[in-house]
Amino acid sequence: NLGSSLRGTLNDLRGKSRISEDDIDNVVKEIQRSLLQADVDTSLVMDLSDSIKTRALEEEPPSSTSARDWVLRVVYEEMVDLIGESTELPLEPQTIMLAGLYGSGKTTTAAKMAWWFSKKGLRPAVIQTDTDRPGAYDQSKQMAENAEVDFYGDPDENDPVTIAEEGLEATADADIRIVDTAGRDGLNQELIDQIERIDDAVNPDRNLLVIDAAMGQSAKEQAQEFEESIGIDGVAITKLDGTAKGGGALAAVNETDSSIAFLGTGETVQDIERFEPSGFISRLLGMGDLKQLTERVERAMEETQAEDEDWDPENMLEGEFTLKDMRHQMSAMDKMGPLDQVMDMIPGMGGGLMDQLPDDAMDVTKDRMREFEVIMDSMTEKELEQPRSIGASQVKRIAHGSGTSEERVQELLEQHKMMSKTLNQFQGMGDADMERMMKQ
Ligand code: GDP
Ligand code: MG
């Protein structure tokens, strides 16, 4: 695990007040390994390595800063410098056009972005101009429906420019217009000509380039082409829920002198995150990021919160993990992604701890979840708050009340114990240094 070896190398610096060239070399080597494996362009990695080395060795660390903290800070700052802050997206009326190759995730991202803006209180509309791909209209319409946003498309019209123009008129009531475009298997003149014509007709406030996280090094060339033809103001990286870390997109950002706006983390309209450098850096380096976790937990909880006003997700990470927490965790899981994925983002959890747990420790299937919920509905407040108070006679009563079996109730309690144990381990790990730094 790359992240844990970087963590290990950094931890070796603990207690040292001065850093040697060897120390820095070791850290930089680990970072290079992580970044190259994440598909970051080689020359970008080399530039970054040089600036980290130079700064870490030549600049005087502030007094009272340990060697480890200093290196972490330099690494982080230089990486933010490379990756950039999030693309600015004012919450005001605007037109955004999406460009990118076939299959990169444009149509999905259009609906996701519309959903995201609608959650910010704006009224978005998706305009579908892809006349090449059979089914693009239906796919886009369906996703706009899922996102509960306005939609315009015309399956009988063959000219994308006409659709775009009519779409702008038809969606005059919307605040945010998101114009989806066709892609091609590769970059070709036809694609470029078409998108230039749409760009002229629509005159978008922003053009976003949509890049598949698995794109790798060829993202650079693609970005150059689109930058030359329509100008790129920001990048959306999709499919970050897979194994690819999206490092290739950094070359695109560099090439277009732009920044990253959104991250796609799944196939449904809610699987979108606003780009945020600290989380992305943590992911690239394979180190956890509590900040992102907290945000994700919070967002998912916003919707479940209404059911239970006094429930606070922070408690889950701080205090005792109750059955109530578990119930919220389960009902939020659809929105947050599987718990093991969430766990990956917690400092110390990504680095192998998950591997030490039984395979099914975090794996609660939908059916099991539903059954667990039924069982929990038969529990008292006290039992939910203090699962340890549940003895044999309560188990019997709960099984009877929920129409399940004592075995099932025991299973639920086991599951809770395992999740609770995992969270406790995390609480014990602490990664205050990293977290403090990330917040700056
Ligand atoms: P387009 O050709 O650029 O419009 O790409 P689509 O939006 O049609 O997406 C192509 C495929 O990638 C579809 O099957 C999408 O469901 C899938 N996809 C898009 N974004 C994501 C993502 O963030 N995660 C995952 N897992 N799949 C995605
Ligand atoms: Mg499409």
TrEMBL record:
MF term (GO), any: GTP binding
Residues involved in GTP binding: 100-107, 180-184, 238-241
InterPro entries for the chain: AAA+_ATPase, P-loop_NTPase, Signal_recog_part_SRP54_M_sf, Signal_recog_particl_SRP54_hlx, Signal_recog_particle_SRP54_M, SRP/SRP_N, SRP54, SRP54_GTPase_dom
Quaternary structure and partners: Part of the signal recognition particle protein translocation system, which is composed of SRP and FtsY. Archaeal SRP consists of a 7S RNA molecule of 300 nucleotides and two protein subunits: SRP54 and SRP19.
The protein's role, per its UniProt record: Involved in targeting and insertion of nascent membrane proteins into the cytoplasmic membrane. Binds to the hydrophobic signal sequence of the ribosome-nascent chain (RNC) as it emerges from the ribosomes. The SRP-RNC complex is then targeted to the cytoplasmic membrane where it interacts with the SRP receptor FtsY.
Free-text comment about domains: Composed of three domains: the N-terminal N domain, which is responsible for interactions with the ribosome, the central G domain, which binds GTP, and the C-terminal M domain, which binds the RNA and the signal sequence of the RNC.
Name assigned to this protein: Signal recognition particle 54 kDa protein
UniProt organism field: Halorientalis brevis
